[in-house]
Amino acid sequence: MKNLILAACILTIAFGCHSAKDTAEQNPIEKPEAQVGDTLKISSDKLEYDIIIIEPGFNTWLTSMAKPKEFYTQSYLEDKNSRYVQAWNSAVLQPTRFNSNLYELQINYKDDIDYGYDVNYKLFNYFIYFQNTYNQNLLGGRVPQN
């Protein structure tokens, strides 16, 4: 479960531009500097995991733009997170197809572990934020809007 910590660090390092290789090479985006308040830590001694998201603007977006807590059911969030993590890990394993500066490390999210509502809510919203901010589409279709 400590691997979830490492996986969450992926989220913190996730910077870049577009998923298309050519676009990424032509239009590099400099990594914004993290500011005070840009780090979000979720942890539980009971389950022995930590998720650390260091993404400029995410914490502000989460408190101002994300749908309120309890809007989704935990089972909905778990299902979506499972699918998002699979797509994310697939992108990590294809660095010639996806921007390796954007998808750096795999996420270790296990479907058989109950991470609780708060973790699933914040992870789900990070995927929404990530897709909107970097114009990515992890699950196909249109880029989700919150």
Q: Would you give an account of this structure?
A:
By secondary structure, this protein is mainly α. The protein has one domain. The chain has five helices and two strands. The chain has a two-stranded antiparallel ribbon with strand order 1-2. Helix 4 crosses helix 5 (117-134). The protein is globular and about 40 Å long. Residues 1-19 form the signal peptide. Keywords: Signal. This is DUF6146 family protein. InterPro entries: DUF6146.
Fraction of helical residues: 40-55%
Strand content: 5-15%
Task: Specify the number of helices.
Answer: 5
Output the radius of gyration: 15 Å
Enumerate the spans where pLDDT stays under 50 for 5 or more consecutive residues. Answer: 1-37
The largest pleated sheet is described as:
2 strands, antiparallel
Estimate nothing, just give the exact number of structural domains.
Answer: 1
